Amino acid sequence: GISVTGVMKATLGSPKVAKALLQAGVHALGDSRIENIKTMRQMQITAPIILIRTPIPSQIDQIISCANISVNTEIEVIKKLSVAAQRANVTHSILLMIELGDLREGVMPDQVENTVREILKLPNIYLQGIGANLACRNGISPDSKNMSELSAIAFSIEDTFKIRLNIVSGGNSANLNWALNDSIDVGRVNELRLGESILLGLEPLENKPIPGLYIDTITLVSEVIESKIKPTQPWGDMGLTAFEKIETTAEQSFVSQSILAVGHQDTDPKGLQAPLGINIVGASSDHLIVTAEKHRLNIGSEVRFQI
Ligand SMILES: *Cc1c(COP(=O)(O)O)cnc(C)c1O
Questions:
Q1: What is the pLDDT of residues 220-260, one digit of tens each?
Q2: Which of 7, 26, 49 to mutate for ligand 1's pocket (most ligand atoms within 8 Å of CB)?
Q3: Ligand 1 atom closest to Cα of 173?
Q4: What is the DSSP-derived secondary structure letter of residue 205?
Q5: CA–centroid distance for 230 within its chain
Q6: Regarding beta strands 288-292 and 278-283, do their DSSP bridges make them parallel or antiparallel, or are they unpaired?
Q7: Each residue of 68-125: pLDDT tens digit?
């Protein structure tokens, strides 16, 4: 009974990926950035799109025109959405995000009733449901306790205001272990927003592969631009580096060192996993330095990293 919003932000709104996800059965697409949502709209993606970061006030008009739903936590912002929606003569749906302990976005539970009362007064705004997001800032795991709290808040809003909440969005990929556990009751949660688990096949809390999913659907491929035998230890007086503090050891030897044309500007080098026999030993903005244990890497050859 849980439907999936396919979260597109890691692909910058790639229309190809959007189409694949829609074909696979996601009920909506989600993105945190209006730029990516615009890209999808320009490429004729007509499916419902949810803005999953609370709207940037200066982008309200674009949000009204491109996104069907947005997640929200500030009444000030929701009032601006209402004004813009009236001007555009549309109804904009919102999900009210509830703080459940990870301390990123959300209204504190004791403020929910007041906030909903304000929301329901606003023309051209439809409170489609509530949601929560855990794990992203403090690694707080979704569990029966915080998810039951979310369900209880949904029931309480419906009771107090005599309305029906269509969506109770429980969270992100970090909710999967909870959601797929047969012995739990998912309560009112009927939607999850999934990005990483679909794209990378990984469960984020423990960074483990999810059984049955591929973990190499997206790989980083980079070309070798220098390949030489070099000493393992730098020489000369040492100041700060562009990025990391260097630990030196006294031992000097020689290695087969190569440079790949990718760096901090493209990715987080710490998140890359090199193929067997290749070690990542350093990175700067546009250079990734690797050593090869056995064979020298040829100039122009490609190395594939898991991300
Ligand atoms: C990024 C994000 C998601 C998707 O998270 P994954 O861990 O990639 O599944 C869901 N909800 C919100 C609010 C997000 O910012």
A1: 999 999 999 999 999 999 888 877 766 666 678 999 999 99
A2: 7
A3: 9
A4: T
A5: 39
A6: antiparallel
A7: 999 999 999 999 999 999 999 999 999 999 999 999 999 999 999 999 999 999 999 9
pTM reported for the whole predicted model? 0.92
Protein residue closest via CA to atom 13 of ligand 1 = 52
Whether residue 133 has its Cβ less than 6 Å from ligand 1: yes
Alpha carbon nearest to ligand 1 atom 14, residue: 52
**Residues 145, 148, 152, CA angle at the centre, nearest 5°?**
135
CA pair distance 261, 222, nearest whole angstrom = 6
| Beta-bridge partners for 289 | 259, 282
Give catalytic residues, as residue numbers: 9
Tell me, using a 6 A CB cutoff, whether residue 191 lines ligand 1. Answer: no
Cβ contact 119:94 at 8 Å: yes
Sheet strands (E) in the chain: 3-7, 28-31, 49-51, 69-72, 92-97, 125-131, 167-169, 191-194, 202-203, 208-209, 219-231, 254-260, 278-283, 288-292, 302-306
| Top mutation candidate among 100, 133, 175, 208 for ligand 1, by most atoms within 8 Å of CB | 133
